Amino acid sequence: MLIESGPQAVTLKAVGARIGRTHANLLHHFGSAEGLQRALIARMATYITSTIRDAVLSNRDGEPDPRRIVDLVFDAFDSGGAGALASWMILSGNRDALDPILSAVHDLVDELAVGMQPAERPIQDETLHLVLLALGDTLLGAPMARALDLPRSKARDLAVAMLTGGSDDAGCG
After folding, report:
1. Positive or negative torsion for Cα 1, 141, 65, 59
2. Rg from Cα positions in the chain
3. CB 162 within 8 A of CB 129
4. Shortest CA distance to 160 belongs to which of 89, 77, 68, 32?
5. How many CB atoms lie within 10 A of CB 58?
6. Which residues contact 11 (CB under 8 A, 6 or more apart)?
7. Considering only CA atoms, which of 18, 1, 20 is closest in space to residue 10?
8. pLDDT higher than threshold 70 for residue 171
9. In whole angstroms, what is the distance from residue 69 CA to residue 130 CA?
10. 169 vs 59 pLDDT, higher one
11. What confidence score (pLDDT) does residue 142 get?
């Protein structure tokens, strides 16, 4: 429902109808629409961070694949619906509902930082950069790329360049 119709469609009544339960049943279980949305974002956070964790850890002993990490993060925010849901929660004043995803990202970064050599750019900086770029791309990437006559993949290319410390020939600097 989130991906099909957007976060505003994820109501107790609509979800209940979709899964064959009553509004009252969902209200009892989640307490409110905000409770349902919090549970949804917590589930999304667990899935997203475990997928990224697996991808990063699988690359630790081999050749790093920053494009795979970038695609996982961007896809989670875009086609996975996390960007729309997070933005909607922020704009509707439900910032506390983001706590599960913020905690999951924090825990993942702490876990991945263990045993790593100090880098020129700490993993916290890279994570902030990547998440903000992915969120911005979800919300405004397609029209902005069109307006600037850039390929739709440009934000992903910039994210890969950031992770690899390379240049993407962006013409900046």
Report:
1. negative
2. 18
3. yes
4. 68
5. 11
6. 33, 36
7. 1
8. no
9. 10
10. 59
11. 94
> In the block, which residue shows the tokens 């849901």?
85
Q: Amino acid letter at 149?
A: D
Per-residue pLDDT at 170 = 45
Q: Which residue has the tokens 């397609």?
A: 142
Amino acid identity at 113:
A
Rounded Cα–Cα distance for residues 123 and 129 (Å): 10
* Token pair belonging to 122: 């700490």
The full DSSP string for the chain is -HHHH-GGG--HHHHHHHHT--HHHHHHHHSSHHHHHHHHHHHHHHHHHHHHHHHHHHHTTS---HHHHHHHHHHHHTTTSHHHHHHHHHHTT-GGGGHHHHHHHHHHHHHHHTTPPP-SS-HHHHHHHHHHHHHHIIIIIHHHHHHTT--TTHHHHHHHHHHHT--------
Q: What is the token pair recorded at 72?
A: 């996982």
